[in-house]
Amino acid sequence: MLRTLLYLLLAILAITVLRSVIGIVMKAASHWLSGASSPAVRDDPGHSVPTAGVLRKDPVCGTFVSEAISVKLKTPAGTLHFCSEACRDKYVETTTSP
Ligand SMILES: [Zn+2]
Questions:
Q1: pLDDT for 27-70, tens place per residue?
Q2: d(CA 90, ligand 1 centre) in Å
Q3: Could you tell me the distance, in angstroms and rounded to a whole number, from the CA of residue 79 to the centre of ligand 1?
Q4: C-alpha 54 to ligand 1 mean position (Å)
Q5: Is residue 48 part of a domain?
Q6: Fewer CB within a 10 Å sphere, N or C end of the chain?
Q7: How many whole angstroms from 87 Cα to the centroid of ligand 1?
Q8: How many domains, the chain?
Q9: Alpha carbon of 98 to ligand 1 centroid (Å)
């Protein structure tokens, strides 16, 4: 009875260890394969997927908008970024009116 329990525990332990070992080996293998087999497809900062860019807060509605697609307005204080022309117009309206 005790032997059976011991064997069961050992089996569980062995499976757990084996699983983690396989996981580590697979991870290392995939890393090694992706790193060694295709050096031409390595991450190139110049040709990487374009990121969303810097996020700017729309001062009118508070929406965060990517600098690349924002509606810009140059002010003496700096460039402001708006989510839409409507927001920009609203901002111009409120800042120019007394
Ligand atoms: Zn807006």
A1: 988 888 887 655 554 555 555 445 557 899 999 999 999 999 99
A2: 9
A3: 15
A4: 16
A5: no
A6: C
A7: 5
A8: 2
A9: 22
Residue 81's CATH number: 2.30.170
| Rounded distance from Cα 82 to ligand 1 centre (Å) | 5
pTM greater than the 0.70 cutoff: no
3-state SS string over 12-81?
A: HHHHHHHHHHHHHHHHHHHHHHHHHCCHHHCCCCCCCCCCCCCEEECCCCCCEEECCCCEEEEECCEEEE
Residue type, 82: F
Domain range for 74 is 55-96
Residues linked to residue 11 through DSSP beta bridges, in sequence order: none
Sign of the CA dihedral running 16, 19, 22, 26 = negative
Cβ burial, residue 88 (10 Å; 0-12/13-18/19+): buried
